[in-house]
Amino acid sequence: MGSEVVFSCEEGYELIGSSHVQCLETGSWNGVFPYCRALSCGRPAVPENAVMMGTNFTFGSKVTFSCVKGFVPGDPYDMQCQASLKWSRAPPACQRVTCGDPPHVGNSDFTLKGKTYLSTVLYTCAEGYRLQGSEEVVCQASGEWSSPAPLCASIHCGDPPALRDAATIGDGHALGNKVHYVCKEG
């Protein structure tokens, strides 16, 4: 009887209710017991092209960020709410994945439309060459260009038609080459 209890909370928590409660002559306490509630750091901003996992933003809680496909950093990224009511670090900046130089394709020209995720390269074969495969390669989330790269193969016309009583001179049958016919004697 006459005893008094003083309540306090640890760092990162706030006391809800009265900090003092007294024991009455009746043997009961003179008020409602207080409780400690975790303080909040507030919802962190979610950067563009990122996703956040976690809905508790109070002291000691963690949230995890990751970047969407095609953006880095690709590994999950944790932040914790500290007693100072600040997050342990800033959210990640998610940058678009970059690919290196596009694959070299012999006997071709190309149109490069960027080197970042989902950018494309369009190949056009030089005269006398035919495209084999897709004309387009795409920068992928892995930072590599899609494969296989196309090939520009020379166009072969096949053997020229045979003429009676004539011989052909020339054995290159690619587009642009010439074959001469020479009449046989007689």
UniProtKB/TrEMBL annotation:
Protein species of origin: Hucho hucho
GO biological process assignments: cell adhesion
SUPFAM superfamilies per UniProt: Complement control module/SCR domain
SMART domains: CCP
Transmembrane domains' residue ranges: none
Keywords: Calcium, Disulfide bond, Glycoprotein, Repeat, Secreted, Signal, Sushi
InterPro entries: Selectin_superfamily, Sushi/SCR/CCP_sf, Sushi_SCR_CCP_dom
Cystine residue pairs: 9-36, 67-94, 125-152
Subcellular compartments: Secreted
Cellular component terms (Gene Ontology): extracellular region; membrane
Name of the protein in its database record: Sushi domain-containing protein
Sushi domain span: 1-38, 39-96, 97-154
Domain of life from the UniProt record: Eukaryota
